[in-house]
Write a structure and sequence with these properties.
The protein is α/β, with parallel strands linked by helices. The chain is built from 10 helices and 8 strands. Bound molecules: 2'-deoxycytidine-5'-monophosphate (DC).
């Protein structure tokens, strides 16, 4: 039997609350979290759309220029690329869409997959993304898959943007989220889907505290909290 790794995976579509929940769960368990969407967004911003026309070797060489590492724990976990803090510049829906397009490129996924697994070798992690439970950490100790309708997710994103003084058009946001869903769920490599052994949670009518509570109850019931302390 393969041994379980000290990783908790959270997968799900855009805007479902994965990053917030990964951060909160990591804080509760006092471990770090890995926002793999932020890694895809960072490479998307740096490589640009022209990455789509580069050959496999060129992409692999370009990705090899970037090294990610984590500092800190819980809510204070920070992601660095080549010693530079990854900041809010990656957080627009346009960068999300570009990341989703480039996430279909095999050598780019391979480069990030290697780095994601390497990061988990040295520390326990809450890892969130699209393929954490299915492809990157199939032996993760706990796996969660979150979902909610595109309308609910767009509304949450809009409220979040408004709280940051970035007014957003709800109809446009809903359309962008739908498009990203199609791209992420139908791509040939590592498409977004729940692992067979993931706990699936529909978050549509639940707030963050309720979802966090469900996750923690599940982890506690399996004696998991102690494993991460
Ligand atoms: O979670 P996010 O919105 O920050 O992710 C941005 C895009 O990156 C997402 O639409 C698809 C891609 N992605 C991926 O393919 N695999 C991951 N593990 C994480 C993100």
């Amino acid at each position: 039997m393969t041994s379980k790794t000290s990783v908790i995976t959270i997968d799900g579509p855009a805007g479902v609350g994965k990053t917030t929940l990964a951060r909160r769960l990591a804080e509760t368990l006092d471990i770090s979290y890995l926002d793999t969407g932020a890694m895809f967004r960072t490479l998307a911003l740096r490589l640009g759309l022209e990455a789509e026309t580069m050959n496999e070797d060129a992409i692999a060489n370009a990705c090899a220029q970037y090294h990610f590492h984590l500092k800190g724990h819980g809510e204070r976990t920070q992601l660095f690329v080549n010693e530079q803090l990854v900041g809010s510049e990656i957080r627009t829906e346009e960068v999300g869409m570009l990341a989703s397009r480039l996430a279909r490129i095999a050598p780019l996924r391979k480069a990030l997959a290697d780095m994601q697994r390497k990061l988990a070798e040295t520390q326990p992690l809450v890892a969130e993304g699209r393929d954490m439970g299915t492809v990157i950490f199939p032996n993760a100790r706990f796996k969660f898959f979150l979902d909610a309708s595109p309308e609910v997710r767009a509304l949450r994103r809009m409220r979040d943007a408004e709280n940051h003084d970035r007014p957003t058009d709800l109809a446009k946001l809903t359309e962008q989220i739908r498009l990203r869903d199609v791209q992420d769920r139908t791509r040939a490599i590592a498409p977004l889907k729940a692992a067979d052994d993931a706990i699936c949670i529909d978050t549509s009518d639940k707030d963050i505290d309720q979802v966090l509570g469900l996750m923690l109850r599940h982890i506690d019931a399996s004696g998991g909290s102690a494993l991460f302390r």
